[in-house]
TrEMBL record:
<feature type="domain" description="Chemotaxis methyl-accepting receptor HlyB-like 4HB MCP">
    <location>
        <begin position="17"/>
        <end position="184"/>
    </location>
</feature>
<feature type="transmembrane region" description="Helical">
    <location>
        <begin position="16"/>
        <end position="35"/>
    </location>
</feature>
<keyword id="KW-0472">Membrane</keyword>
<keyword id="KW-0675">Receptor</keyword>
<dbReference type="InterPro" id="IPR024478">
    <property type="entry name" value="HlyB_4HB_MCP"/>
</dbReference>
<protein>
    <submittedName>
        <fullName>Chemoreceptor-like protein with four helix bundle sensory module</fullName>
    </submittedName>
</protein>
<feature type="transmembrane region" description="Helical">
    <location>
        <begin position="195"/>
        <end position="218"/>
    </location>
</feature>
<keyword id="KW-1133">Transmembrane helix</keyword>
<keyword id="KW-0812">Transmembrane</keyword>
<dbReference type="Pfam" id="PF12729">
    <property type="entry name" value="4HB_MCP_1"/>
</dbReference>
Length: 231
């Protein structure tokens, strides 16, 4: 049995039509809800990662570099001073070392990519080396070996400090690159959310049209039935 175009809907039982429409609505809503929930979770993770694993650590790297330069300048000023105080410089360096240690502990708790981990470990190794040289230089100057202390500072400590700054520079560059990747991923997730919203709108429109068609078909069927009964 065949039906004229656009009249197929009249041949489907009314209850079945309604069941199909409602079933389709529930199915689409469920799928879109799951997709949107997953997408929102991805966006939330990306935003948190940008803030906690990139923005804050990048700031910590800046402070780490700043404190390291302050330490080096303090030690150099101490060595070039005509009346140096080993007690004062030791206190100053100890205070700065505590700040550096706190920043290092904070940084290593964040998520690190493989390349980042390599340079971070290199930074920690160079830092240990520099701290040992720092102590050696202060000890030399304390025991009236100021020229030896200066030689150790300018020949070895400065080179060790440059290595630390090189690792810090590379870590900062990695932070920027990984952050850009996260931002790109975040933009993709936002675009997916827009797509899901548009699909939801389309489904709502189609569902509305189907409901209107079913109501119209029901009215036509009712009118035909009334005419038949009158005849």
């Amino acid at each position: 049995m065949s039906f004229p175009p656009m009249r197929w809907i009249y041949a489907i039982p009314q209850k079945f039509k309604i069941a199909c429409v409602l079933g389709s609505i529930i199915f689409c809503i469920t799928i879109f809800t799951l997709l949107e929930t997953r997408n929102i979770n991805n966006i939330n993770k990306a935003v948190l990662s940008i803030y906690e694993d990139r923005l804050i650590p990048a700031t910590d790297l800046f402070f780490l570099a700043e404190v390291s330069y302050q330490k080096r300048d303090q030690l150099e000023s101490y060595l070039e001073s005509s009346d140096p105080s080993s007690i004062l410089i030791s206190k100053q360096l100890a205070k700065q070392n505590d700040r550096i240690e706190a920043l290092i502990r904070k940084y290593e708790k964040t998520y690190l990519v493989d390349e980042e981990l390599v340079h971070f470990n290199g930074l920690k190794n160079n830092l240990k080396e520099y701290l040992a040289l720092e102590k050696e230089i202060v000890d030399l100057s304390t025991h009236n070996s100021k020229e030896a202390a200066k030689s150790a500072f300018y020949n070895r400590a400065v080179a060790s400090h440059h290595k630390m700054m090189d690792h810090l520079s590379k870590l900062t560059r990695i932070q920027s690159n990984v952050g850009a990747t996260l931002v790109s991923s975040l933009k993709n997730d936002v675009a997916k959310s827009d797509l899901i919203s548009n699909l939801q709108l389309i489904v709502c429109i189609i569902t509305g049209l189907l409901i209107i068609a079913i109501i119209f078909a029901a009215k036509v069927t009712s009118v035909k039935s009334d005419k038949y009964n009158l005849n």
